[in-house]
User: What shape does this take?
Amino acid sequence: MQLFRLNSRAVRCGLWLAALIGGLGPTADLASAQAQPAAAARTPSGQAIAQARCAACHGLDGNTRDPAYPKLAGQLESFLALQLRNYKSGERPHPVMAAMAQQLSDRDIERVARHYASQAPMRHEGPTDAALLARGEFVFKVGKPGAPACQYCHGPAGQGVAPVFARLAGQHPEFIVASLQPYRKESAFANPYAYVMKAVVQEWSDDDIRAVAAYVGSLR
Ligand code: HEC
Ligand code: HEC
Assistant: This one.
C-alpha cells in the first residue's frame, strides 16, 4: 500500500515534469541549433576550451580529485549546457562560475558540454562505512511519502536521465551534500526545476543526506 502511494506520487511527479520539460526545453535547443553560422571553423574545439578555461579546476577529463569542484566527466550533455546557460544568465547564482560562463558564446557552451559529456564517466569513490551506505541506498531507492526516491528521476543507477536529471553516480559526496543545501533552505527560486528538488530533499535529515551522498558517490 505504502509502496503504491510512493509510486503513484513519483509517476505524477514525472508526468508533471515531462509537461514542464516539453514546454520549456526544446524551444531553447532549437534556437541554439539554428544559430550555427559558417563561423564554426574559427570556434575553438570543446577540448581546447576545456584545456584553457576549465581544466585547472575540473580537470581536462572532468575527473578532478578535488572535492571543492564537481566532476563533469560523463555528465549529461544537456545538463552541462543548461547549467552553463543558467550561470551565464544568473539564474544559478555563483560568482566564480558566472565569470567563467560569461566568457563563453552559445557555441562554446555546446562544444565544451560535448567534450565533458564524452569523457569516461566519473570515477567512483572507494568503499565507506557499510551502515552509512545501506542507509543511503534506502534513501536513493525507496524514499518515503513526501520525498520520492532519487532513482525515480536520476535513474536506477544514478546515471542521469536527459535532459535535466543530472548524473549523480561517482560524484564527490561533498559536492552532493553542498549542492542540496540551497534546495532545503531557500524559500523562493526563479527555476521551476528547483522546486522539484526542494520538495524531495526538505523531508530528509542531515544524516540521510550525508548517507545518500556517500551511496551515490560509490556508484559506477
Ligand atoms: C576557478 C575554478 C573553476 C573554473 C576555472 C571553472 N569552474 Fe566550473 N565550477 C567551479 C565550482 C566551484 C563549481 C560549483 C558551483 C556551484 O556550487 O554552483 C563549478 C560548477 C560547474 C558546473 C555545474 C556542475 C554540476 O554538476 O552542477 C559546470 C557544468 C561547470 N562548472 C562547468 C565549467 C566549465 C565548462 C568551465 C570552463 C569554461 C568551468 N566550469 C571552469 C569552479 C570552476
Ligand atoms: C521528482 C524528480 C527528482 C527526484 C525524486 C530527485 N531529484 Fe535531484 N534533481 C531533480 C531536478 C529537476 C534537478 C535540477 C534542479 C535545478 O535545476 O535546480 C535535480 C538536481 C539534483 C542535484 C544537483 C545536481 C548538480 O550536479 O548540480 C543533486 C545533487 C540531486 N538532484 C540529488 C538528488 C538526490 C540525492 C535525490 C534523492 C534524495 C534526488 N535528487 C531526487 C529532480 C529530482
In short: Residues 13, 70, 139, 148, 150, 152-154, 164-166, 168, 176, 179-180, 191, 193-194, 196-197, 200-201, 212 surround heme C (ligand 2) (CB under 6 Å). The chain is about 60% helix and 0% strand. Residues 62 and 73 are 4 Å apart (CA to CA). Confidence is low (pLDDT under 50) at residues 1-39.
